[in-house]
Amino acid sequence: MGAVVYAALQAEHNAGVTDGVKPVGVMIVTRLKAQVDEVVLQINSYVGRVVAIADHTDHRATPEQLANSAIVVITHEAYTRAKETLSGVNADRWHRLTNWCGGRRLLTIVDEALANVVKHSQVKLDELSRVIGHITHEMRLSYPREVKALETLREEMLFHAGVNDGFRIGTALAWAAGDSPAVVDLSSLRAEMRKLPYDRMIGKDDDKERDRLAKRYDKTLVAAEELLDQHAFMALKGSEHTLNSSALAVPLELPGPVVLDATAGVDLMYDLMEDRADIIPTPRGVRDYSNVTLHVARTERIGKTAMEELAAARFAALQENLAQRLSPEQQVLFVVHKRVEHLVPAADDLGVKAASATHWGAVDGSNEFKDYDTAVIIGLPFRDHVWGTNVFFAFQGVQGDEWHDNPSWKCHSACNIDPPYCRICECYPDGAVAAVDAMSTDWPRQVAFQACSVGGAVGGSGPT
Model's pTM, two decimal places? Predict the structure, then answer.
């Protein structure tokens, strides 16, 4: 609401500026299209006239509307696509978003942590082999260069996989940016492969299965092209070999945004930005958790695979426990893995006023559940070490094999000299929790809350 009021007041101020005073255009970035529409409605209602315009796939603003609106509101996804648009794919549209009749928009407000600021690319060796196996003879004749590039990529992965198997290397740099064995545009080959009858290849006649497999294999081809265009490092997790890369989705030449992220103080991303980010301390009293009661049940195996296997017994025990603890007027939100969301007990099962469920990845930044007074979190999403390495490389640059052997940052040892400045993934070999900053010094406290009921308001900004 603060961003809404500020933007509305700025629009009012713009209307009264005198000659020689530059008006301030504003871009607001929020997660969901529904939130974009809500912010626009609130700003225009506050001012009493149209000063803000939404621009997303369900509501494209015209060039005239963008030019005449002091405030434009877009989604995180549109914002992180800026790297593509600035490189020329759709530079005109991005220029229309960041400029208006008053000149360049001078203020960008990002509501909540910017999602997907680092773009991750990964190709699994077995999956790449499977995709190459689906390339038809006719495609090989039509796209020899593209097929050769994919086969070269596979040969490189096989070589590094052999090294990993022989020496049990966790991660190792395959090549630096500009040193890949091939560079290729796979768009034409991808278009042809999306037409293949994948469902019939496995003995089915199912349009949904065909579409699912086409998207799956196309995702591998997209990642393959990105890996050949960027740096890449090989990683071994269990028995699975993957080739990985990452890049900043938001180029540094964009106007510096104000990010309304209350968790910035414990988010590794901002630390990795170093002098490119200025973290403003949260004022005292803004977040008061004194009315929150934690009920903690500690256990092992809380990732999505284990939870799917153990869900039936665990949810039965959880329901029995909650039915004894909760009162009829309470509203309960369950945050679980997507695969077990259907097992969440209903309000009647618990004897409460309301019960809803959401899953990891769908709750960030949402205020849909702001009136719920109880949160039940069972199961946590984990990131593997590849994710942390990708984030580190995107901000700090690609590191060589010496770094992979002894990952560190700002000190000589990643784990025992100065932990607050060494919050990189290898400090936590068992994996990092995706929903919190697993690199922070708060990690021992955070990891303990593997299943809990929290009494207090719940929403996009957390309990208050």
Answer: 0.76
